[in-house]
Amino acid sequence: MMATKLATRGLGKSFQKDGKAIEALRGLDLDIARGEFVSIVGASGCGKTTFLRLINGLIKPTSGTVTLDGADVSAPGANIAFVFQQDGLFPWRNVLDNTVIGPELQRKDMNEARRTASSFLNLVGLRGFEKHFPHELSGGMKQRVNMARALTAGADVLLMDEPFAALDAQTREIMQAELTRIWRETGKTILFVTHQIDEAVFLSDRVLVFTVRPGRLKEEVTIDLPRPRELTLKRAPQFANYVDHIWQSIEQEVRESIRLETEATLAIAKR
Known about the structure:
The protein is of the alpha/beta class. It folds into 2 domains: 1-79 and 155-249, P-loop containing nucleotide triphosphate hydrolases (Rossmann fold); 90-154, no CATH class. Helices cover 39% and strands 24% of the residues. The protein contains 8 helices and 10 strands. It has helices spanning 48-56, 95-99, 101-105, 110-123, 139-152, 169-186, 197-203, 237-269; strands at 4-17, 20-33, 37-41, 63-68, 71-72, 80-83, 157-161, 189-193, 206-210, 217-222. It has a 6-stranded mixed beta sheet, with helices on both faces. A hairpin with a 2-residue loop joins strand 4 and strand 5. Helix 4 crosses helix 5 (139-152) and helix 7 (197-203) packs across helix 8. It starts with a strand and ends with a helix.
């Protein structure tokens, strides 16, 4: 049994809107092992992104705790990096200068940071692009820079919030394969949010299914498929079985989410 890297106990979060409390997450008890790849799926609005923001310390829980290596997480720190859906690259900085932002903010030795960044840019397949600017890169290349930046920051844990959502279907598949390679070579712990069930199955050791709001853990599915994984695995019967099982688990939640959204829209229209 691998050591626990991240843990939550009784984790919950509520927000205030129009004077009313909206419960986003409730009672999450989770253990994420060191070096594990875990994906989170669920209906829109089930609290997936809120969960990542709690893990990173960007927002504080209403109840419960988040611990990293046994220590409470109360604010963003160097050991957890966030990879967002949008690349967030600074247009006036070239690829290398964008990649070293973490060490720069941490006031680390920049010569060493540039050497580290260069090695990670090589790892993500961007050797030779160090002096290019964001407007000269494709969407997939920008997300590679985003991953290299997170790795250069020195974090043990990567939180990835639908990082491939804006990519075309073909590029997205290639980036999935690349991410599994990068994860395997770096040994990082990854929490990955996605709406794509096949993406979650392909990438993950485990897939967590969240209920409709308030988000709770409905089911965790261990993905017992061999690694390293090639994209051809997606055509295997056992892969399809996992996708079908998770969809059946999530379908009711999606229908309930649509119902709640429709009711809320009608209520606003009647005001």
